[in-house]
Write a structure and sequence with these properties.
Shape: globular
Helix content: 25-40%
Distance between the termini: 23 Å
Strand content: 25-35%
Structural class: alpha/beta
Strand order of the largest sheet: 5-6-4-3-7-8-9
Order of helices and strands: HEEHHEHEEEEHEHE
Bound molecules: adenosine monophosphate
């Protein structure tokens, strides 16, 4: 499977100078989508994982079927203001301004090991914010998975300690 071919690339989106790697074009191909899930199964076959945290919104689409295949609890990390119960929150910097993610406190069992899933790692700030919430709750990060990695943005500086894994890497702009 040539995953690169299955990823739509859109120049100058959402703003000039950014090449947007659109993971949603993978979901339009059942073969490519199944390939992603099969590769995740292989990568984490022997890993000790007690649950999956999927990040809004494209991370949901990758994290949910993986959790179900492995019969693991699925927890959603959502944008601020969406979750009705008591939450743990973490703000992080975006290129312009700040964003905040939240997780229901009662979903994050202390002492358990969580795999954090998103579609793409750019600077790693989003995934780092989720890892921080996991640790704040006394739980552990079992690993970080993302379909795409942009290694030229040096995300290992932020999240290298959580063993990030990707299926395809782009090493230059
Ligand atoms: P970061 O926190 O910098 O790692 O940004 C990661 C989040 O922003 C992911 O959830 C991606 O969906 C999105 N993102 C950032 N840069 C890009 C890009 N070049 N193409 C597609 N999505 C991106």
């Amino acid at each position: 499977m040539d995953l690169d071919k299955a990823i739509r690339k859109v120049p100058d989106f959402p703003k000039p100078g950014i090449l947007f790697y659109d993971v949603t074009s993978i979901f339009t191909s059942p073969q490519a989508f199944r390939y992603v899930l099969d590769r995740m199964d292989d990568l984490y076959k022997n890993a000790e994982i007690n649950g999956v945290i999927a990040i809004e919104s494209r991370g949901f689409i990758v994290g949910a079927p993986f959790a179900l295949r492995r019969a693991l609890p699925l927890v959603l990390a959502r944008k601020q203001g969406k979750l009705p119960g008591e939450t743990v929150k973490q703000s992080y910097s975006l290129e312009y301004g700040e964003a905040t993610l939240e997780i229901h406190k009662s979903d994050l069992a202390p002492g358990k090991k969580w795999l954090i899933v998103d579609d793409l790692i750019a600077t790693g700030g989003t995934l780092k914010a989720v890892a921080t919430m996991v640790e704040k709750q006394g739980a552990e990060v079992a690993g970080i998975f993302s379909v795409i990695g942009l290694s030229f943005l040096n995300y290992t500086e932020q999240i290298g300690q959580y063993n990030p894994k990707t299926l395809i890497n782009y090493d230059k702009k």
